[in-house]
Every structure is written in structure tokens, then in C-alpha cells.
Batch of 2 targets.
Target 1
Amino acid sequence: MDQREGGLAQAESVSVNVQGGAAGDDASARGLRAHLSSMYGALTGHFVSVRIKVVALMTLVGAALVLMSAGFVIYNFNSNLEQAAYARSAGVSDAVAHAALDMAGPADIEPVIDAVAGAPGLKGAAVASLGGRILHSSDDNWAGKRLQLDAGLLDEARRLPAAEVPTQDQLEGAGHYPGDFARILRFSQSGEEAVLFVRVDTDKVASKLVVDAWNLMAWLVIAVVLAVLTMSLLIHRTIVAPIEALRDYAASGSRSVPYRGGLEDEIGVVARALSESIDARNAGEARLAKLAATDGLTGLGNRTYFKDRLAQEIAAGERGGRMVGVMILNLDNFKDVNDTIGHDAGDIVLQRTADILKGCARDGDTVARLGGDEFGIIMPGVKNADDALHLAGRLVRAVGAPFRLGAQELQQGACVGLTLFPQDGRDAEVLVKTADLALSRAKQEGAGACVLYRHELHLRAIERNTIERDLRSALAQNQLMLFYQPKVDIATGRVTGAEALIRWRHEERGFIPPATFIPVAERSGLVVPLTKWVLDEACRQNRVWQDDGLMKIGVAVNVSAIDLRRADLTDTIANTLIRHGLSPQFLELEVTESMVMEDVDVVIGTLRRLRSLGVGIGIDDFGTGYSSLAYLKRFPVKRLKIDRSFVQDVADGRDGDVIPKVIIDLAHALGVKVIAEGVETAEQFETLRALGCDEVQGYFVGRPMPAAEFEVFLRNSPAGGLHGTAIDMSKPAGARRGSKPDMTGSAA
Ligand code: C2E
Ligand code: MG
Ligand code: MG
């Protein structure tokens, strides 16, 4: 039982071993396979050129051919040796056999044996009896020895005619030697027979054969190398070179010369297909690039194209030391065209402009649409600024010529900003910016203006940025203040109100006039919080004066066009009034004539809401803004303020009073009060009184002054406070108490 168990256990262990062995083999085979495949991967994972593959293949073929021929030479060596040895012995034994024909017996042949034994390639020769006993030999060592002749072969040879089939056998006792040959000799005179024995020197024969074999090998190698080279050359010319040309063509993405195969073959077909697909791809790419750089509406290049071209022209200008002019043309009030006659008409206007610009441009100029109603023109090689301005003027005139659009006759104004490389900037980005700056200056100058960028424009832009930054912090840090300028009733001399005028004392630059910073605030949107602050401060101050028991007057606050367009202006004002507990009748807003003439419907709505709130509206700088009388009737205004420019000449004794008179009469006809601003002299004051003007404002009656000073002024006004007295109009304001001239209050 135990034994059986032991046996089983052994068998199991054997089978386990066997399996273990098989598993080991498997593992090593797998390892080998993995190794091979990793080698293959390493080889195939790298790019191996066709040329190298062909060279490797041809080398392999050449090596195989050389090896095969070497094998053949070696294989043939033995039989060659045998044949050579046989041929050597046959030659000698033929000569001896021939000599024997004329002899009587073996004794006569001895000298012949001796003679032939010395022939090259022989070791010796002997004549023996048919029984094999050596009768005479060239080698003394052979004397008395026997040849071991094969009886059968000997009989067969004796039956054959003379000189045929020599027998080969060994010399007894002289050892086995491959160069031994025997043959029957017939002495025809006696009819006797003997055996001729010849021993060929096989070493010599072999060494000669080896030399021959080496020569043969050398020629073979040369032939194989030549054949392989010729094959390689052929394969190179017919396959490798065309494939390499194709590769270069494909890799260069068609920038190299396309491959043109000589004879029509598969490579030619592939080349043609490749060339066609690359051409198609290039054409597609070119089309896409063109589309990406083109403005769809006008067919001109777009902003990207413009900048690219500009960079190229700048580089060319740099190389050739040439000037490059850059122009940005913008259509005036293009928005109105879209709004009034529609977007389709707007598109036509843009296309017409593009056509005109293209038509006017000189050879080499680039015209592009930069976006909206803005066009850019690059003028390489302009001679000087005048040259560029001349072209700009020509473009503006051409664009501005009247044209028909359907039934309408239209005229489209435009402005141009101009800049020059290299004096205004040396890269595309800077030049576009400077041209833009010049354009905004041109816009300010008005329709048809062409402005050449000057460094001052840039400085002005920097100045604007500084002002904006400082104003923002001044507003945040409460560094602004309000001055108040009195408005006086012309008949009674009583103060009827005050205009709140903002003042900013800059920490480093001193007082900055509102005419400088208000436009900056308007551009940056900062005017909105600024107006809020002015409203708040003016209402607060007015409330304080009222609480102090001073005469109740209205305070006028200037608002900008941006404020007027904001939907929340009414709410802001209502909240401010509520916050300070001020009745709306004591607040007046001054809006300029030009402000109300833009977006008339919106503005009328806002003004009506304000009016219904109880807030007064005054039209400032009246006479400068081409009011339409029809609109004027609809404006809910309380006052018209005659602009200072008319007041200046009102007492010049010529016809300076004509316009003020017209305004006064018009205002009265509309039931609106008139105030004249900028009254500086008694003559102006008197003339205005004679013309029927209701109120005056100006240095003559009082300069803008700080709140505390204004308070004194108000107290001195007739019925202006508890102890008020009438203002004596016979003296200028500076001579009166409470109206000390304040230089900071003068207009810019
Ligand atoms: P404006 O509303 O027409 O204000 C009258 C300007 O004329 C004031 O200039 C005032 O100082 C000046 N002025 C008054 N009387 C005379 C005079 O007899 N002779 C001369 N030569 N000038 C006189 P100011 O304060 O420099 O303000 C200029 C402009 O700035 C104002 O013109 C107004 O449009 C604007 N502005 C002033 N304060 C504010 C404000 O708080 N908000 C807004 N949005 N604009 C303001
Ligand atoms: Mg004003
Ligand atoms: Mg004014």
C-alpha cells in the first residue's frame, strides 16, 4: 500500500517534472518570441529608407552568391583533384605505352621509365610483372616490392585493346596514395605484357588546383559585386530614385518641383495622383486663406489682411528706405444711413465706397475694409505728408460726391486719419493706432476732414488717459467741489438762481477747467457718477441755504448728453430730491441745444418726465446749435440761455444785438424766460435790459464762487436774506461785496 503510494507519488512527481520542463520550454520559447518581436519592433518602429533596404537586400544576395560559389568550388575540389591526377598519369603512361610498342620486353623500357619519372607532377614510375612484382622502378625504395593488383580489373584491362583503360591500384607496402595509377604495357615485338605503375604527386596537383580555385573565387566575387552593383544601379534608377523624388515632393507639400516620372509606370500613376491631391489641397488652402482675409460684402481685404499687408509694406519700406502712408477713412453718420434708408442701402453705400477707394488707389496701394464703415488704405512709397494728404483729400471728395440710390439723391461724407511710416511708428500695430488717433481728431474737426497724425495727438491721448485716471480717483476721494454763479433778474437786481459749476483742484496741476475734463469724463462714461455727485451736492447745498433761512432760489446743474440718454436719470433726480428734502422747483437742469437736437424723441420724453416731476429745464448755449423751431415748441423748457458768443458783441454798436433780440423775442413768443450768459460789462447789461432780456449771468453780476462766498452774495441780494439789499448795478461785480472775482471760475 505504502509502496504503491510511493510509486504514485513518484509518477506524479515525474509528470510534474515533465510539465515543469514543458512549461520551461514554453516560457523560453515565449521569451524568444518576445525578444524577436521586440527586435522586429525596434527595426520596424524606425524609418528605414527604401535605399537602405535595397542596399541591404542586394548585399545579402551578393553574399549568398559568393557563398554558393565558394561552396561549389570546395565541393568540386576532390573530383577536380582526381581528374587532374588521372590526366597527369594518363599523359605519362600513354607515352610509355607508346614506347613499349616498339620494344622487346620490360628490360628495354627501363630508360623510358627513368625518363618519365622525372616529369613534373610525378613522384615516380615503375614497371612490374603481371603478378605485381616490381621489375624496375625510378624510386629505389620500391625495389622488390609488389603492386597489389586487383585481379578482376587486371583481366578486364588485358582484354581491352592497347593504350586503353589504365587500372589504378596501390603499390604494396608503399601505403595508400590517391595518385597511384597502373596500366597494362604490351611489348608488341615479343607479345609480352607487363604492368606500368605511375605515382602522381597529388600535393603539387592540389596546390595548383587551390591557386586556380582562389583565382576562380576572386573572379566570381568580382563578377558578383559587379552584378550586384549593376542591379542596384538599375533598381536605384527605376525604383529608388523615383520613390525618393516622390517622398521629397510629398514632404515638401508641393513646394519642390513635382515628380515627373520618365516612363509611365506605377510610380508615375502614384505621382500623378499625389500631385493632383496636393494641388487640390493647396488650391483649397489658398481659397480658405483668401476667404479668411476677405470682406464678404465689398470683396476687399479685411482687417487681418490689412495688418498683414501693412507689416509686409513696412518691411519693404525698411529695406528700401521708403515711406509708407497709412490711411483710415470713416464714413460720417453711417448709422443714420442704416437707420433711415435701411441696411440694404447701407450695404450699397459701403460697396460704392469700396469701389471708389479701389478706383482712386494707385498701383501698389492696398485697400481694405477694417470693419463697419471704416476702410484702410496703405500707400507704399508716398513721397511726403503732402502727397498722402493730397490722396486723402481726393478720396474724401470722391466718396462725398452726390449719387443716386433708387429715387433718392444721397451724399456721404467721410473723414480720414493719416499716419506715416517711419516717423509716426515702426510697426503695424502702432501705425493703425496713430491713424486711429488722427481719425478721431478728424471726426472732431467735422465732415470731410483729413488729419495727419502729429505727435501732439498722441500726447493729447496720453493726457486724456491721465486725466481720466486722476479724475476717477478725485471723484472717489471727494476732491471735487462746486462753485455757484448767480443768475440775476435784470429788472430788480435780485438773485433768481445759481448755476452750479464743477471745480477740480488737481493735487499737482492746480485747477483744471471743466472744458478739459468734462469731455474726458463723457468719453469714459465717468460723467454719469460725476453728474450724480454734482446733483447730490447742489441739492444738499441748496437745502442747507434754505434751512439757514436764505432766499429760496433754484440751483441749475449742467447735465451731459450721456446723462440725458440714460433711462435712470429721472429716478436719480427724484431720489436725490427726496434724500435732501428739496422741492423740485428749486432744481433746474441745463442741457445744451446740440444735445437736445440728437435723438429728439428720446430727449423730449426724458425732458417731459423731468418737467412733470417739477424740475426746471434750461437750454444752455442757445443759438449755437441750429435748433429746429418746430422742436423748440415741443420742448418743455423754462429758460433759454443766450450763448456768451452773442452776448460779447451785443453792445458793439453795429448789429451785434440782432441775434440776441431774435432769441429774446422768440423765447417770449414761446412763453419762455431768457437769460444771457457771459455778461461782463455795464454796456452789455444795459443793452440786454433794453432788448427785454429777463435775467443775466456773468462776471458783471457775479463770478462763480465757493458755496460760503455765494451765501454772503445771496444775503446781500435784494430780498435775498434776512438783511438783504439790492445789488447796485452801476458798479462792476468785483467792486461789490460778495462777488469777489475768482479766477478759477473763468471759462476755459
Ligand atoms: P456753461 O454751462 O455754459 O457754463 C458757463 C461757463 O461760462 C462757466 O465756465 C463759467 O465760469 C463761464 N462764465 C460765466 N460768466 C462768464 C463771463 O462773464 N465771462 C466769461 N468769459 N466766462 C463766464 P466753466 O465753469 O469753466 O464751465 C465750462 C463748461 O463746463 C460749462 O459751460 C458746462 O458746459 C461745463 N460744466 C461745468 N460744470 C459742469 C458740471 O457740473 N457738469 C457738466 N456736465 N458740465 C459742467
Ligand atoms: Mg451751463
Ligand atoms: Mg453756457
Note: The pocket of magnesium ion (ligand 2) is lined by residues 499, 558, 590, 620 (CB under 6 Å).
Target 2
Amino acid sequence: MKTIKTQVAIIGGGPSGLLLGQLLHKYGIDNVILERVTGEYVLGRIRAGILEQGFVNLVREAGVEQRMETEGHVHEGVIFSVQGKDTRVDLKGLTGGDVVMCYGQVEITQDLMQARVAADLPTYYEASDVQPMDVKSNTPYVAFTHDGEEYRLDCDYIAGCDGFHGVSRQTIPEDVRTEFERVYPFGWLGLLADVPPCHEELIYAKHERGFALASQRSPTRSRYYLQVPLTDKVEDWSDDAFWEELKKRLPPEVAANMQTGPSIEKSIAPLRSFVCEPMQYGNLFLVGDAAHIVPPTGAKGLNLAAGDVATLLKIFRRVYEEGDKACTEQYSEIALRRVWNAERYSWWLTSLLHEFGDEAGDSAMDPQMRDRFMTSEVNYFLQSEAGRKVIAEQYVGLPYEDLK
Ligand code: APR
Ligand code: PHB
């Protein structure tokens, strides 16, 4: 058994773990990342492409912003198309200057990985049997196997950044943990293609045939989504069938000018709202998808993870710079306030913009009546400036809370 030592052990080398690791390094806090798969595998996962201002600021604070600044595109607005009527939500105007950055999360992950290599920070890829141990004690450690050898990673704290299926959340005893979950009765079929975007800003479309989203990665790469029944298989959808259906759901003038082409990637993702409370147990802290999942409507997944990272960074800085260990107690409470806000927003946008068919959504009422209410609600919010402001200030992201 090999013993190694660090200050913060990070389980999971996805975007959450990498961002936390890079920021801790900036402030002189040692960390080791343990990742179950290879770096190439991590980069192969398809992600969304909208970064909130807070996330962008963290990437700058980590010193990894160079490529994002040149290749990313600032979006000052977003379009909502409801049953044929388009409304632009002027993010910048309605929020007093806030915008979002369109830059692929896969690109950010790659930039963070490269920065980690350049700084020569320790990462164990293909680490197996990773297990947080003695997390309630003052001497926690993480046991794992690497290259056939057993390791013990002694540390002060463990950051569980290991996603929804990771081991960290399971380490919190069931009688301490409460999990909230809603699985939606549909999925998103996503298609990536090397064609110019159909519109300069994102279009979220509510249509009687189902929701659609026009997004983008660059001036030459587009990302589109269609709401599909959970019973659909990706093999059921040829590229032609996808484009044809997409054109029916997007505004006609946009569809008429849309460039189509062969897909680079096509997959179906289920939609889920999930929260685990609390987000800490002893010296173990859950970060990102390990603690919460949002449906993608509103692109809050990674942005929410960034909020957790920001809070945990403030805590670790106070611990190591000021010796205040008691401040760690604040993590879950602060993180969960932001989590529930984004969960509510993502659930709300999902409810407003999707077709639930014979399902009554989250209400006990007749499905058709619910549908009338949702259509009325989304139209009301879009035609009222106050309503658009409510949509905008949450779309750009609520501010990060300070420690007490
Ligand atoms: N040991 C080590 N690593 C693990 C383990 C384990 N037992 N289980 C999972 N992992 C790794 C996964 O292989 C993955 O690379 O943890 C990482 C978790 O990454 P993500 O699932 O991407 O979660 P996170 O980093 O929190 O990213 C947040 O942003 O795009 C959004 O919601 C989307 O998942 C995304 C989120
Ligand atoms: C994406 O570009 O993949 C994307 C954008 C916005 C969303 C979801 C996904 O709300």
C-alpha cells in the first residue's frame, strides 16, 4: 500500500473537480484528483454550451480564460418562440448589463485539463475502487487502486465531484440523507452538426408538436434539440427525420434559412430534477452533479456546479488563510439556497415549454386545463417587461452568496 498526502482530495475529474482543483492551486492549496476513467473519455461526454457570468469570472480567476475569451461568443439576448410568436428577452438590457457566454463546456474541460498538466498537478486517471474513508474524523482519507497498486490518500478534506453515479453521495449514511427527485415523461434528442447556426442567439421553442431548442458551439457548429417520448430510440431518428421535425417546431422564417448537414453526434438524454440534502457530511463535501441534477432547459447544470465550487473555494481559503475551520459548517446551507433556486427555475422553464400530453405535469388537474394555464403563463411572462426581467435575471445566473 502506497500512502500519499494532500490538503484537498478531489474525487472526479469532470468540469467540477477540474475547476475546483485549478482554483485551489491558484491560492496555494494542494489537491489531488482521482478520476475513474481516462481524460479522453471525460472529454467525449457531450455537454451544454452556455456559461453564466459567475462561471466566466471563476474561469478568469483560475487563469484559464485565454481560449474562452477569443473563441467564446457573448450572447446579450435569447429568443423564446411560443406557438409561432417570437419574443426576444434582452438579457443585457433587463439585468443592467449581464450577459452569458456561449462556449462549449467540453472546451472548458479541455482548457482546465491542459492547465492542470501545465502546472504539473497530480491527477490519477483510471483510478478504481475509490472510497472516501473516515470522513467524520479529523484524519479522513481516500482509498483507491491505480495501476494494480493500492493507495491511501491522506487529506484534510474530500471534495466529492464525482457526478450523479459517483461514490461520494453514497458515503453519506441513508438516515442522514434526503433525496428529492422528479423524472420527466420525455427526453431531449440532441444533434450536433458542422453547419452555421440558424440564428445568432439561442431559440427556445414551445410548439404543440413538442419543445425544440436551437443552440450553437461556434460560427460553424450548431447544436439542436427536440423533445421526444422516452420510448424513442436514437436509431429511430435519421438525420433527415430530425431536420424535418426541427423545422416544423422552430419559427418558419428561421426554418426556411436553416442549413442542415450530417450529424457528428446524436443522442437522447432523459430529463431529471434531483437534489441531495445535506451536501456535506463531516469532512466530505458534495459538488456539482454528485449533489444535484437539473433538466437542461435553461442550461443550469454546470453553472450550478460552478456555484458550489465558488462557495467551497471561499471556505477552503478561509480555512487555510485564516485558520477558521468552523466556517466549513456553512457549505451545505449556502450551496443549497442557490441549488434550489436553479432547480426551481429549470423545472419552471421545463414545465412551461414542454408538451406533457396526457400527463398533468406536476399538478393534479386535467392535462388540457394545465396546458392552457402553462400557455397563458408563458405568454404573460413574455409580454410583460417585469416577466421578461424575471426570466432574464435567472438566465444570466443569480449572484454567489458570501460566507457569514
Ligand atoms: N471515482 C472517481 N471518479 C469518479 C467516480 C468514482 N467512483 N465516479 C464518477 N467519477 C467521475 C466521472 O468519471 C466523471 O468524470 O467523476 C466525474 C464527474 O463528472 P460529471 O458527471 O461531469 O459531473 P460534474 O463535474 O459535477 O459536472 C457538472 O455540468 O454539463 C453539466 O450537468 C452537466 O455533468 C455536468 C455538470
Ligand atoms: C446546448 O448548447 O447544448 C444547450 C444550450 C442551452 C440549454 C441547453 C443546452 O438550455
Note: The chain is about 35% helix and 30% strand.
